[in-house]
Amino acid sequence: MEFITDQSAGYLVNHLARLFARQLQDRIKPLGLTTGTFPALLVLWEGDGLTQRELIDRLDIEQPTLANTLARMERDGLVIRKKDAVDARAQRIWLTDQARALRAPAIAAAMQVNSEALAGLTEAERDQFLALMRRIIAGMQKDALDEVEDRQETG
Amino acid sequence: MEFITDQSAGYLVNHLARLFARQLQDRIKPLGLTTGTFPALLVLWEGDGLTQRELIDRLDIEQPTLANTLARMERDGLVIRKKDAVDARAQRIWLTDQARALRAPAIAAAMQVNSEALAGLTEAERDQFLALMRRIIAGMQKDALDEVEDRQETG
DNA sequence: TAGCATTGCATTCCAAGCTATGCAAGTGTT
DNA sequence: AACACTTGCATAGCTTGGAATGCAATGCTA
Lengths: 155, 155
Known about the structure:
Keywords (chains A, B): DNA-binding, Transcription, Transcription regulation
Number of strands of chain A: 3
Distance between the termini of chain A: 35 Å
Order of helices and strands of chain A: HHEHHEEHHH
Oligomer: homodimer
CATH superfamily of the largest domain in chain A: Winged helix-like DNA-binding domain superfamily/Winged helix DNA-binding domain
Pfam family, one (chains A, B): MarR_2
Strand content of chain A: 5-15%
Number of domains of chain A: 2
Structural class of chain A: mainly alpha
Helix content of chain A: 55-70%
Radius of gyration of chain A: 19 Å
GO molecular function (chains A, B): DNA binding; DNA-binding transcription factor activity
CATH architecture of the largest domain in chain A: Orthogonal Bundle
Shape of chain A: globular
Protein name (chains A, B): DNA-binding MarR family transcriptional regulator
CATH class of the largest domain in chain A: Mainly Alpha
InterPro entries (chains A, B): HTH_MarR-typ, WH-like_DNA-bd_sf, WH_DNA-bd_sf
Largest sheet of chain A: 3 strands, antiparallel
Strand order of the largest sheet of chain A: 1-3-2
CATH topology of the largest domain in chain A: Arc Repressor Mutant, subunit A
């Protein structure tokens, strides 16, 4: 059985993700940001005051991963957490002014990474690439969901 | 400035990489393997007795990352490290019988993950997807190399 | 309303990746 | 030969990601 890395989607995706992460990190480090905060920030920039649970529902990330990320973000002055008025278990996440101010430069950095990465592709190829990824992601998420449901029925 | 995650290559690649990693981990955990060992194993299965340096040259991974991975692999009985006869600094990496025996099932697992992930695509779309990734990777590696060279000239 | 199940979050422990640094062994230069 | 430089690897410390677990607050149900 042969395994050719150049023809393995998983291998290439992993490699590509590391290349993107390195690029993004280089560009947002001067802003005092790290890559892991990015997904959470993108959601919060659209509207903060969410609970951790609400954030998780918008990010395909495990709860402990987000909890850790939020802890680092609080330590670094990007967010503050206030107890929910109604539900004493929940904490609502609020952006600091500092985090709000970083929105424009951070997004500019990310968009620049994207455009440089895809610079060798035509407009059509870029669209194709994004569309293919969206379809693969949707399929894999569905598969994962089905597996969870199967386990619940069986177990 | 807008940022739409569905149209961000970096965001989608990161997400996709996590989905692939979860799938692969589920499948190779029963074999006693973890995802991080995979790239090194793929090289070593083609021929072991390499030094760490030679492995790094075949993997776009930083040296400390590989050193850690090899330490875990040695701990788990996948490889042994023997001092090089000529160069006392270098250590040559040898697969154990156990690691050799895992080749077929591990590769089968990875190929299954790939084919399930791409199941919703036509043959042509799969080829396109892989080809696009290869081109983007090549471009980003070239960019990264150029930056290093620029820094050396300047600094 | 008492007891049980669920929910929201934190904590622990691990893998995997990175940067920065250290150090011993080899190489090259004068 | 002495010195500086380079190379090969290890270590420390961090982020990002996950699984497993714990626990308090809430919700449900008999």
